[in-house]
Amino acid sequence: MLDLLIKNANLPDGRTGVDIAVSDGTFQDIAPAIDAQSQKTIDASGRLVSPPFVDPHFHMDATLSLGQPRLNRSGTLLEGIALWGELKPLLTREAVVERALRYCDLAVSRGLLSIRSHVDVCDERLLAVDALIEVREKVAPYIDLQLVAFPQDGLFRSPDAEQNLLRALDKGVDIVGGIPHFERTMLEGAASVQRLCEIATERGLPVDMHCDETDDPLSRHIETLAAETVRLGLQGRVAGSHLTSMHSMDNYYVSKLIPLIAEAEIHAIPNPLINITLQGRHDTYPKRRGLTRVPEMLAAGINVALGQDCCMDPWYSMGSADMLEVAHMAVHVAQMTSIEAMKQAFDAVTVNSARAMGLDDYGIEKGKPATCVLLQARDPVEAIRLKANRLAVLRNGEIIAQAEPQVSTLNLAGRPDTVDPAGYAPVENPPGKTL
């Protein structure tokens, strides 16, 4: 007797009409027409069953704080930074915990079950660090939450930032962060990359740096990060987030830089919603998009994972914990509209992001934890197009969130009674058939 049997599902790799057997919290079998009794059966009806969504770059200490202590009237990065500076002294541990937990509720409903959050350590109290460590423990049964010690005001620019970062790591924060382009000089930025990578090496920890989040084509700290990664033997354990300066760099330099990133096995984490919003603000026209060179890095074999970055906070007044919204923006801004590229965008919010976060038990495979999402869409491209409804979210074989299909009722003479947006998926003509 199975615990759960999902019938007639499609998978992101292109398999269709498969059954998925679940027992003891794991995938027992994945095959067509599994003949077995189960305590519960879900008819996927040809819909997509995907591994859960993964957000490799977020700021949970600030989430849902929009309007406190005031709104970002200009919508710019600099006003957002100033706002966060005003808000930090007013934070309480209880408020940070409550907002983070509310956000995690929303994330679960969206099938987002793994999140890497940067947490500001440029506060002597380390209040946000303690709050998010508490949240990490509370959500552990349903969300994998990784924390990055982030010296948000600059490792050297902010007094005691290094000491605070080390204290945060001692408390159990998982990853070493940085922001070299925010240091006072390019030399100090490069020195901060070197120092932070050395700290990570000494402690056996990964690195995830906000790197070159600027329109300045001469901001080249990703080059230093790649060099330090190789020097210290950190290949595969380092992520460079944002990398927006690459959008403005000349092609000759990028032709050198991309192979260096690939050689260092650095995970690239662009954040399409925020990059398209905050970059290019000094431009009139032509106006730069700001998103880094996603297709080029994918073509070079670099693991590109897309992050959400912000949700209703001082920097971004929108957001909804929807990684399909992130992929949807990437498809448009990076002009990833080929069939293969759209599938790559889906991978960038699932398998690629899981790889960037080092999630070993991720994926729909026999013997792995039965953690997945049933979407109101037929395939990954349709899921992105529709930002598809999550009909069921499973964690270790347990259904932890459900929703009814989104279907509208029509009152039009001679037309159908209902409309299902997922019913508009294109069907490719069989060979030799004409319409």
Automatic annotation (TrEMBL):
Entry GO MF terms:
cytosine deaminase activity; isoguanine deaminase activity; metal ion binding
Asked whether the UniProt record includes Transmembrane helix among its keywords, one would answer no
All copies of the Amidohydrolase domain together span 40-399
Keyword line? Hydrolase, Metal-binding
The protein's matches in CDD domains, at most eight in alphabetical order, are given as: Bact_CD (cd01293)
Q: What ranges does the record give for the region Disordered, renumbered to this chain?
A: 413-435
UniProt key word Hydrolase:
yes
Pfam families found in the cross-reference section: Amidohydro_3
Q: Which GO terms describe its biological process?
A: cytosine catabolic process
Looking up SUPFAM superfamilies in the UniProt record yields:
Composite domain of metallo-dependent hydrolases, Metallo-dependent hydrolases
Q: Which InterPro entries match?
A: Amidohydro_3, Metal-dep_hydrolase_composite, Metal_Hydrolase, Metallo-hydrolase_Enzymes
PANTHER family assigned: CYTOSINE DEAMINASE (PTHR32027:SF0)
Protein name from the UniProt record: Amidohydrolase family protein
Origin organism is Hoeflea prorocentri
Q: What is the lineage of its organism?
A: Bacteria, Pseudomonadati, Pseudomonadota, Alphaproteobacteria, Hyphomicrobiales
